[in-house]
Protein: Carboxypeptidase regulatory-like domain-containing protein
Organism: Goodfellowiella coeruleoviolacea
Amino acid sequence: MRQRWHDTDLALLAEVAGLFEARDPAPAQVVADATAALPLVAGQSDVDRFTLCADSAGDPDQAVEPGRDGSCPPDADSPADADAGCGGGLLLRGTRPTARILGFTLADVVRLDVWLGPAVRGRRAVLGLVGPVRPASAVVVRWPRGRLRAPVDEVGRFRLSGVPVGPVSFLLHQPGATAAATDWFVS
């Protein structure tokens, strides 16, 4: 049930907002970032929108970090890596929740899976998979003050490093198709 706002409520909110603006205004860069992000709100952009269909942050038993101690590389596949608990690069259940896996779909046709690695000094590595694959595709990860672009290889994989912890959005560019974006979320 949606709450109705009365004129007195709106007047009180305006007064409180005025007090905050006078005593503790938002930093200019925050205002600029928020203003720049307004066109990215769903329904106000010229890109298609992915739908979130899976997020390991919502379920602590979901697959997270490869390995028992969180030190295994995501592409580990040697017998020594398997002995260390890396599982040959497979994402294992019940290990330390230092990473996050998200799955997105576009009209039940295009799939974007993202693995956010553990944060190290405020940055994350990102591995992902796109399907179906189109040649010359690319994935862009955006954050309020930057972006990184990675090509999608012939089997749909992409890799990025140095992605800051905080609000991010992924954008998929495929030849002959409208770009598609995820909603913003905190990594």
